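Possible race condition, two jobs.
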Amino acid sequence: MELRHLRAFVEVATHGSYARAATALGIAQSAMSRQVSALEREVGGRLFHRTGRGVALTEIGERVLPQGRALIADAAAFEQAAKSPRGRPSGEVTLGLVPVASRTFVAGLTALLRDDYPGIRLRVLEGYSGQVEEWLAAQRVDIAVYNRYRRGRVANAEAIMRADTHLIIRSSHPIAKGAEVALRALAEVPLALPVRPNSLTNLLTGLAATQHFELDIRLEASSTSLIGETIRASDLATISPAHVFAREIASGEFSAVRIVRPTIEQTTWMSFGSHRPLSAAAEIVTRLIRKLALQRREPAARSKRSTSG
């Protein structure tokens, strides 16, 4: 079994498409197809079946994919150990991040790695929390950064940021004049929220039900940027920590009104795959994420102290 055949299989499974996988590896699509076909002959069965939008794993493919990912990761770790000078880790680290974490961490991580650890390459997948956690469970990512809204610890995870949720609305809206708004008062506010299943959307609809009203959800969207564009072009609002829309708030385009009765706290967690220890490169990336999260928390803490004073 050749490693390049296995790598082709894993990339096609990751991207759901021969064309996108070939682009990711920098090879021709025909070569990618031949490599997967060679692996299928070795395992004695089809690994993919065609769909209208690409390919999907067969039962055999689903069964062998975790082991395929593990073998690829082990080969990369072997190569890293053989080639990396002591104290200069190298290799690829795959992150699964929610959109706000992408805004918060990716640019800073890229700059720090370029300057101090040029041998480490980042691979970033962005999605809402449920999807990011699924990627971690399926071993598609080494490090997952996602949000939870209920109190309590999360197993095999560390909390890196906390923030209250706000109503994010155009600054010209009458509600934008207040500092706080009760959740119950949002019954008449048309909303754009993350597409379900999503922990925040599920929590909000559940809290509204306990107060005997329904939220007026006009749009469920799969990206923060789409929600932002919708707010910009309509009278819709969203519910989110303020720092997700920090640029728009700083420019005066949007306003953030803290939600109360009840307050809703978002905790951002960082988790790691339990199937194997983190590589030296992944350990470096987690340390840098902690550093960037601390830098984010310190100005927020100073701002809160000055406001309360």
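Job #2 (started ~2 s after job #1):
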Amino acid sequence: MALIAIEEHWNLPELTSAVQALPEDRGDPSVMLDGLGDNLERLHDIGDARIAAMDAQGVDLQILSLAPPGTQPLEPADARTLSRRANDIAAEAVGRYPARLRAFSTLPMADPAAAVAELERAAGLGFVGAMVYGRTAETPLDDPRYDDLFAAAAALRQPIFIHPQIPSRTVREAVYSGFDPLTELALATFGWGWHLEAAVAALRLIVRGTFDRHPGLQLVLGHWGELLLFWTDRTDSLSSLAGLDRKVSDYVRSNIHITSSGMFDPALLRHVLEVTTPDRLLFSSDYPFQRPDKTDIEKFLIEFPTDEDRGKFTAGNACSLFGIDITSRKEQQ
């Protein structure tokens, strides 16, 4: 059984430096998480050491994506330059390991027109989608200025992965402050805030009517849907008020794919299968921030109700969504 991991991070040192140099009101303190343990060493490697780590996990193919926050907080000129550089480096890595790697493009979201152009360029280089975040400065992803990007993504069959990002400074001060600095950061990021931010970004896109205008557009959400799938009873009540063609939960089932992000809890799987279908589920380990070993993964895969559903999760759905031609490790070799 082939195993494709779709949310596997790397990073570019000069991009990290550019984010760290931003003023406090525009910076992203979550970059400090990259430096915990040996994360930086692993993030900076998209060569033989990464392939060895994949072998140890039993992963046949990774889809590379820049670690948060990507180029999202940068000024337009810097975002354009570093997005292009990151994409060129990722393309080179895929070229060195064509049987083992694919990549999501990084887009200069501070310049919406340039983001469209870079999406188109990256698609031509063989990228299988793009990873973005829910907010650029104070502009939400559903702002009309990004509608051309979603139109292009739908036309090019480039799925858009909405990755969590740290809440704005105003929200952090109002909601996540009052603790020691590390606890505040954890609460605002992986402990809670990251996931609300991504869920709200996806929900706003639905409520904005994005999928009524672009029915072919496909999104990906990590962490079993970033809490969105656990509240469909209430979110469906938005549908008629927002003038949508369908219920919010219908868009979730037809336009959003869900990935595991290394959270191998059978209870999460059971709930998600009640809300959406096995055709919407994707495997990911969130490397290197989560590092399940081969035994952890195999133990979790037993929880799927059928071999067919298990095969969809491990590779089948990723092959279909991203146009990847892989059926087994044996055939790659």
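Confidence is low (pLDDT under 50) at residues 328-333.
Logs attached separately.
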